[in-house]
Design brief:
This protein is α/β, with parallel strands linked by helices. The protein is built from 16 helices and 13 strands. The longest helix has 36 residues.
Length: 487
Amino acid sequence: MGSSRKKSRDTTRAANRVSSRSTGLRDRSYSNESQQERAFLVGLDARTRGRSASKPAVTAQATAARDAVAASTSGTKKEGRPSIPEFDAEESLGELRTLAESAGAKVVGEILQRRDRPDPATLVGAGKLEEIAGAAASVDADVLLFDHDLSPSQQRNIEKIIQRRVIDRTQLILDIFARHARTREGQLQVEVAQLHYMMPRLAGHGIEMSQLGGGIGTRGPGETKLETDRRKIARRVRHLEQQLENVRRIRAQQRQRRESAPVATVALVGYTNAGKSTLFNALTRAGVLSSSKMFATLDPTIRAVDLPSKRKVLLSDTVGFIRNLPHTLVSAFRATLEEVQKASLILHVSDASSRLSAEQDAQVEIVLKELEAEKKPRLRVMNKVDLLDEEVAQGLIADAGKQGSRTVYVSAMDGIGLDLLRERIDKMIEEDQVSRVHLRIPQSEGKLLAFLEARARIYSREYKDGAVELEAEAPESVIRRVRAFAR
C-alpha cells in the first residue's frame, strides 16, 4: 500500500513539475502594478489571395453557425452567407488584450502582422519575428501572447529567436480558467485540460527531459526522461478523469432527485462577458461573482426562481463561451455543461450593445452543437440595453413585447425587462403545467388556504357557509393536493 501511495505522489509531482514549466502566466498575486507581468501581444491577419484585408478566414463550421443565427433572427432560412459583422483582426487582438488583462498581465505593446497565409515555422515569418523581438525588448516584455494557436514546433522556434516566454491563445485561456477555478471540480477540469494541452509540448522543455541518463549503470536499453514524464502525465490524466467521472455520476444522481419533482431547469449560456452572472443575480438574488473580466464564472451555480404562475424553476449559471474555445476545455467541462444538455429551456444571453453580438452568437452555436444541445427550446435574451440609445432601446423592447417573440431585451444591471423575461420563461416551460380550478375549502383548513395563497394565482374569493369558494390558477403539483376540494 505504501509503494502505491508513493507512486501516486511521484505521478502528481511529475505532472506538477511539467505544469510549472508549461503553464502560461506565473501563479502569483497581482496586488500592485509592479508585480504584473508585462505582456506583448502579437496578432495575425492571415487572408487568402482575393479576400478583403479586413476579413480573416473563417471555418465552415462558423459559417454554418452564422447561417443558423441569421435564420433564427429573421425567421426564414437564408441562402449563402449571412451579412452580419465578423471579427476582424483588430477586434480579435482587442479580445486578446481583454484576455491578457483577465489573466493579470499588463499589456505593454502589440503588433498585428498581415500576410497571405501563416508561416509553418514561425507563424508570422522570420523577418517579422526579428522585428517583434526588438519591439518586445524595447518595452521590457516578460511574455509574448499570440492571438493564434501555435504548434509545438512553432512555439519552440519562436522562443529561440525571441528569448522570452511565448504563450498562445489556448494556453492563455487555460491560465485564466486555472486562476478562476474555485471548487475542487473546477480545478480538476482545468488540470485535465492543461495536461492534454501540454502532452505534445513536452519535447524541448530542457535537455533533462529528452536525454538518457549519463554515468555508470544508466547506459543501455531504457526509456528517455521524456517518455517517463509522458507516462506519468498520462497516468495522472487517467486518475483525474476517473475523479471527474465520479463528479458526473454524483451530478446525475442530483439531477434524478430534481427530476423526481416537477421542477424545470433553465440554463444560461452565452459569450463570455455577456452579463450572464449579473442576470443570474438579478433573477435569483444569489450574489454570485459578476465581473467584467472574462471567464469570471467557472463553477456552476443553481438557484430557484419564482415565475408569475407561482411555479418554481431552477436557474443554472454556466461558464461563458468564446471564439475558438479550446476543444480540451469543452471536453473537460462536459460534466459541468451537462446542465445545459439536460435543461428544459436555454436562455441564450447576448450583449445587445456589441457590434459583434451576431458573430458571438454564432460561436455559442458551435459549442451548443458540440454539446448536442442546439435543438433545445431556446429564448434569446439581449442584455445591456442600458448601453444603447434610449429611443432605440425602447423601440426594441416594444417589438420584443409582441406575442410569440422568442427574443427579450433586458438590462440585468438596471432591472429593465425582467418581468417580461419571467413571463416568457413561464410560457415556455412545459413541466408542471398550469390550469384553472374551482375550489370550495372549509375555513378551518387554514394551512391549506395559506398554501394556495403562496403557490397559486387567486382570481376570485367568496365566503359562504363556513367555506371559501375560490377560482384559482395553479400548477398541477398544487392542484393534486387540493383536488378533493375541487367543484
